[in-house]
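Model: Ready when you are.
Researcher: Fold this.
Model:
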Amino acid sequence: MKKILFTLGCFCTTLLFSQGNCLLYPEGSDARKACELAYEGKSLKQGSRESQEMFDSILKLNPEYDWAYMEKSVAYLKRGLIVEGLELLDKAVELEPRYNLPYRAYWHFQNRNYKLCIRDLERYYKLPNAFIYELTPGGDKDMRLLLAMSYAKEGNLQKGIETVQNCLKSYKRESDFGLVDYHILGMLYVKNKQYKKALEAFDKQLKMTEDYPDSYYYMGLAYKALNKPKEAKMHFEKAKDKFLDDSHIRNGYLCYKVYYSDVLDEIDALSE
């Protein structure tokens, strides 16, 4: 699962060049020149005028260079130029679906367009050369978890749960598991009112890390639904303490975000 990603995340500040060995192209060819130019410019700051000019030069040499389209799109998308950015990203996907569909799906997920995220990831996993263990930019989550959450957000919680289960079953080693994999499973169980299964998942999550208030919050909801107010309040209090320790899940793509005010509301409700 910890394979090297060739996909560029939104949080990078310099360009990630990963288009392989330029020697694979014929010497003197425009494709070779474009590849070498990309390699020379790999340290340029993402979104800088110099990097954008470099992409223009690369695409003049090789209009089929998907990496340049994808990289060029990032600057537009980060600046809110959605139409222009997606046109470039769509071109990258058209030229090389395997390397670019996951990034476009990730972008759709981040922008709460779950239908398009599902479309791209379902298409991706049907590719004969798809990476089974495709990770999110940054490498902390399996993309199948984003697919699962997208199913859930579109109203198909059971399919989301099954997608997470199949993902976790595919891992070969303990080190394959991410820090929030079981949290996502437990969270979807709570949303689907399968509270006992949710608690089983969160027990496994706490063996991975006890730092996230989000997990204690959902455990509190499960105990509350099971009519165990004492256990529920205890877990809400733990969630509160973790928030005060500033140890909450920091990434922006869990889609069912827990806020400190949510925890306080639950504690107040159980204190009445």
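Researcher: Now this one.
Model:
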Amino acid sequence: MGICFNKKKGGALKINIQNWNIEDSAFWDAEGKKTAFRNLWISIPALLQSFSIWIMWGMIIVQMKKLGFTLGMPHETLEDLKVFNELLWTIPAIAGLSGATLRIPNSFLIAIGGGRNVVFLSTVLLLIPAVGAGIALQDIHTPYHVFAVLAVLSGFGGGNFASSMSNISFFFPKRMQGTALGLNAGLGNLGVSVMQFLIPAVITAGFFGACAGAGLPLVETDGTKAAGTLVYLQNAGWIWVLFLVLSAIASFFGMNNLKMATPELGDYAGEFFRIVLLVFFGLVAAGTGSYLQAELKWNMWLVLPITIILTLLLMKILSPRQIKSSLDRQFAIFKNKHNWIMTILYVMTFGSFIGYSASFPKLIQDVFGYLPGGQVNPNAPNPMTWAFLG
């Protein structure tokens, strides 16, 4: 059986691979294996950082309270403090809703935009919430709506999981897809734990110099740290910037688009436009859902179907004809009962994992951090230390 190589002169692999017959063992051994694993090893750190940035607000809000952040609202009465604490809870909740919503358009991105293009652009987009957090966390009077917007944008990370898994599945023969997807998902999900250990370490000092902002003093005792100790909470955002840039460069120059996964390849401007457009539809729906729940206090079980339906309607109605034809073919999955059964199972498994991970640090603080009279509990466990248990 002949082998068709996808190489330019000089031995460099093309970005767009036209022939990808990985079920042919000769092709796999000669060319496919090396290319597939190169794409996998670039995909994993990109996905790891996606999870880190998506879930980082669960750690950040704990320190925001200890540093005296006001969210731009008064703190004069017990009712003010209650409202403030409720708003803190909504920040990681908004990020969670946004990430879940963005998985809908991300599920379709590989077919219309190309795997390499999607991973590159989605990694670049994560720079927005990372840099935004680095700036916003320098001022304790940054208003709530700024953090709410950044939380919505952090949802880029949650959405990336869907496109990342879809992309990697095309690179490996069926006999190896379980291993490849397990590595991509398992090591990618490790980003939650990496973030939970890394953020407490990097906020202890001004590692990034004066350009990253000055430290903020603790307004209450934090474990062994006395009130007045400087904390560089903005580093929780800045720490990801260099790694994101490196991942973006690696994906741009080291990953590939597969013709079998993306039938219409070659028009880079069009591919990037289609990616951005579908992600924008997801952001609009996620922002709408977040507003309904956080601002208007609508019931969660009403907000969720509205957000999902709005996302699908925006994609279905407002997409250009070229995108719509591809979406119509893929929308057939909604008629498959197994799709809905797996959705319910996934909500119970992954949903509980990511929900507990995002909420556990704040839960520790609220349950154990204060005595009945409102005083700081000197014997309370440090949420930043025990967050990994979530």
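Researcher: Key takeaway?
Model: Residues 18-389 form a domain with the Growth Hormone; Chain: A; fold (CATH 1.20.1250.20).
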